[in-house]
Design brief:
three-stranded mixed sheet; 192 residues
Length: 192
């Protein structure tokens, strides 16, 4: 079972850290699979599907070693944990799979990744990021809400073999599919 909450968060107007501290890391935007993504330990097919749907991955390295990343996609996100598609307006991106290596989790890297991503989004006139957070991850929910995120919906997904039932507070409210060829519900986020 998946129980998620959807959040919208405005991008930050001000940097989180001084720009001089960004130089501790090298940042690279990827638009296709590269071997450095093996560090994420995600299935090759998942990584390929992310790029096939137009996602960009911001990679942070230090001394040529992978330290973390975040993923952004514009217009539409096809979920890779269950069957669902999220459509959203052009002034928003979907952010997902933000990852920091264990040794860097208490460093400035998280803020540095987001400052770099904010600059990329500002160049594209993007005002908000959208994301889903497990309803059971109270720490992530608190940190998102503290940073200004607002809950804009929820979804519960029940799965058994190829069967999937989805219940949400957004149209289509309820969706049933009996095989993986059915892409699951399509949710439209119009008010962000």
């Amino acid at each position: 079972m998946h129980h998620v909450r959807f959040y919208s968060q405005p991008i930050s107007d001000a940097p989180r850290i001084p720009e001089a501290k960004l130089s501790r890391y090298e940042f690279t935007w990827l638009s296709q699979p590269e071997s450095i993504l093996d560090e994420l330990q995600r299935p090759e097919e998942v990584i390929k599907n992310r790029f096939d749907q137009g996602s960009s991955c911001l990679i942070a390295t230090q001394n040529d070693l992978f330290q973390g990343c975040l993923w952004l996609v514009e217009s539409r996100y096809i979920e890779d944990q269950y069957r669902a598609t999220y459509n959203f307006p052009g002034n928003a991106v979907w952010d997902y799979d933000v990852y920091i290596t264990p040794k860097k989790r208490l460093s400035i890297l998280f803020a540095a990744l987001w400052d770099t991503a904010d600059n990329w989004m500002k160049e594209r006139n993007i005002t908000n990021t959208l994301s889903r957070i497990s309803a059971y991850n109270s720490q992530s929910i608190r940190s998102h809400e503290k940073a200004g995120a607002k809950q804009i919906g929820w979804l519960i997904v029940l799965e058994k073999n190829d069967w999937q039932i989805s219940i949400t507070n957004k149209s289509p409210w309820f969706h049933y599919s009996s095989n993986s060829k059915n892409g699951g519900p399509i949710l439209h986020f119009t008010r962000i």
